[in-house]
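Researcher: Let's do a round of design. I'm pasting the structure tokens now; please hold your answer until I've finished.
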């Protein structure tokens, strides 16, 4: 691999990967990387220098703006709530690795999402997160204004540089309303992620969509060619573009806006699609809105549906798994919905011990995670030892957090995701006696739970209380732990350190689910309902085990019974009696799933089919 010091046009470091000669798939990956870098290279005449905006050299050469309400980069930077933010962060990291000219846009939440606290009765309470943006971000001097309820709201921006392995970077802009010029009630607009009331949520989405476009222009990033809306939270950017087009041409030119917009929908759950009463929309946005007939044509007759707005004003629309694409097409008939199945950023989620093994046996895996398909050549003992080290670190962290001592030789199951009814976090205890009998027959079982419930989700909070009650019923053969306040660091340790990843959503309500992908790239198999990504990643007994048939709901009792049956008859006997066979399963997880379900593939798919 040879490096050119700087791109002569945009000033960014350029890394060229020499074309591989080994197989067709590697040559395709190389070709896509080089084509994307070349076609998006900046034109010097279109980008005048801006000496005082505070951005680093090369940042104004961006052609794609990626808008997301949440982005996860670091545990100490609480600008995310869960899977959507982690996916956004992983995708931006791959954009940087591949040197694609992307800029990310999100909000800076001084109070974060929330810090999860559990009282003695097992009840979740939410507290603001204390952090200092200056530890991660640089404040930029630019200011822009949006109008909400007739009041001008001043916004500033913070900048975070996401470094790629190749020397490429992606700047992430975080909008902040806590400016001294603003009324105190307006300073709090960007304080908490997913603020509670519809009015608070809509104010945030105005800041993200309209404020984001204005901030890009104020920073000299005024030649953006594609706007990627990661979920409906960002859909107001399309209305901003439409209003500008109307002002410029005097007509409502929908096609010119569609040509510039990409929309990714992430949820098959109806409640997950933001909807706002039209009266509230008119109250907050006022004269910035198109006429009622245009607004209702784009977003719905009785309310503004942000997903419909994104669908109607985007040329490329995609779901995040094959099954999710089908479900989305059923929810929104008449729209063409493509599929880009989610992935994870392998370099971020692979444990340190396994990273060293990969470096030894698959030296190109970081540059191109598809090389992980060669994992089967790794000696069994090295895979098993690397996992044992990860498990030991997890057990130490659990001891530190909860004072519970787990046993490294015991089979350990992990379940960590948002606590909500459709994910069925308590399904494992549908028949506790049956579970305990399985554990006793196979030398014991340990189960680790983690996850937050949305502040307004009472069902989710009750589920956490139930999990904590189950944890108190400790027996000689069954030990349960609930870890509060999960963050990226804990998620990284969990997905690398458990022996089996459990996933039990009610189908077809799982859009994709990326935690199982993180486990797979660490060689941890899944036991999961056939929904979301697992329909594509599942090979029975090879990459893990399935629950249910055909992704159709069949009831809690049936699914729980199959969990006990597969633990008893297949999973635990293999783990306890045949370490060679278990090592083969671990290597198959990496070779078949880790090599495919990564965000480098996702980024190249967007570049080739949506951005170009």
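Researcher: That's everything. Go ahead.
Model: Designed sequence:
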């Amino acid at each position: 691999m040879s490096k050119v010091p700087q791109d002569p046009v945009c000033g960014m470091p350029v890394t060229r990967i020499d074309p591989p000669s080994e197989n067709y798939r590697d040559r395709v990956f190389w070709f896509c990387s080089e084509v994307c870098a070349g076609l998006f290279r900046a034109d010097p005449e279109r980008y005048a220098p801006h000496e005082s905006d505070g951005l680093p050299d090369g940042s104004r050469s961006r052609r794609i703006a990626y808008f997301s309400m949440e982005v996860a980069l670091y545990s100490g930077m609480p600008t995310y709530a869960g899977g959507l933010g982690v996916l956004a962060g992983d995708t931006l990291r791959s954009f940087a690795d591949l040197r694609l000219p992307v800029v990310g846009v999100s909000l800076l939440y001084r109070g974060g999402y929330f810090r999860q606290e559990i009282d003695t009765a097992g009840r979740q309470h939410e507290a603001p997160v204390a952090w200092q943006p200056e530890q991660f971000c640089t404040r930029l001097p630019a200011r822009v204004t949006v109008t909400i309820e007739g009041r001008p709201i001043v916004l500033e921006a913070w900048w975070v540089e996401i470094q790629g392995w190749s020397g490429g970077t992606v700047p992430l802009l975080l909008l902040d309303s806590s400016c001294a010029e603003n009324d105190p009630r307006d300073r709090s607009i960007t304080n908490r992620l997913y603020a509670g009331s519809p009015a608070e949520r809509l104010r945030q989405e105005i800041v993200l969509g309209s404020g984001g476009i204005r901030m890009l222009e104020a920073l000299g990033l005024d030649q953006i060619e594609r706007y990627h809306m990661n979920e409906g939270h960002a859909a107001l950017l399309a209305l901003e573009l439409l209003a500008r087009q109307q002002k410029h041409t005097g007509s409502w030119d929908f096609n010119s806006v569609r040509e510039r917009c990409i929309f990714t929908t992430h949820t098959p759950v109806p409640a997950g699609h933001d909807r706002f009463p039209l009266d509230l929309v008119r109250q907050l946005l006022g004269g910035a809105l198109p006429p009622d007939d245009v607004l209702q044509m784009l977003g719905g007759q009785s309310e503004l549906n942000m997903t419909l707005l994104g669908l109607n004003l985007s040329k490329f629309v995609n779901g995040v798994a094959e099954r999710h694409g089908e479900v989305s097409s059923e929810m929104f008939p008449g729209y063409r919905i493509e599929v880009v199945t989610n992935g994870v950023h392998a370099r971020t989620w692979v444990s340190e011990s396994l990273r060293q093994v990969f470096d030894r046996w698959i030296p190109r895996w970081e540059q191109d995670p598809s090389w992980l398909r060669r994992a089967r050549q790794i000696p069994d003992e090295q895979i098993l030892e690397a996992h044992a080290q990860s498990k030991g670190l997890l057990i130490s962290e659990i001891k530190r957090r909860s004072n519970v001592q787990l046993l490294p030789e015991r089979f350990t199951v992990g379940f960590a995701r948002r606590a909500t009814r459709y994910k069925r976090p308590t399904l494992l205890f549908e028949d506790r006696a049956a579970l305990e009998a399985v554990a006793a027959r196979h030398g014991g079982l340990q189960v680790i739970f983690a996850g937050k419930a949305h502040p307004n989700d009472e069902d989710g909070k009750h589920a956490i209380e139930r999990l904590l009650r189950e944890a108190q019923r400790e027996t000689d053969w069954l030990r349960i732990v609930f870890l509060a306040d999960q963050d990226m660091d804990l998620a990284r340790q969990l997905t690398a350190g458990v022996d089996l990843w459990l996933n039990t959503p009610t189908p077809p309500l799982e859009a994709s689910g990326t935690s199982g992908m993180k486990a797979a790239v660490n060689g941890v198999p899944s036991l999961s309902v056939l929904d979301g990504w697992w329909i594509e990643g599942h090979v029975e007994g090879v990459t893990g085990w399935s629950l249910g048939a055909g992704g159709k709901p069949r009831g809690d009792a049936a699914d729980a019974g199959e969990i006990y049956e597969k633990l008893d008859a297949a999973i635990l006997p293999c783990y306890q009696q045949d370490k060679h066979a278990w090592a083969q399963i671990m290597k198959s997880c990496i070779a078949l799933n880790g090599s495919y379900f990564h965000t480098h593939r996702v980024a190249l798919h967007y570049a080739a089919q949506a951005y170009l």
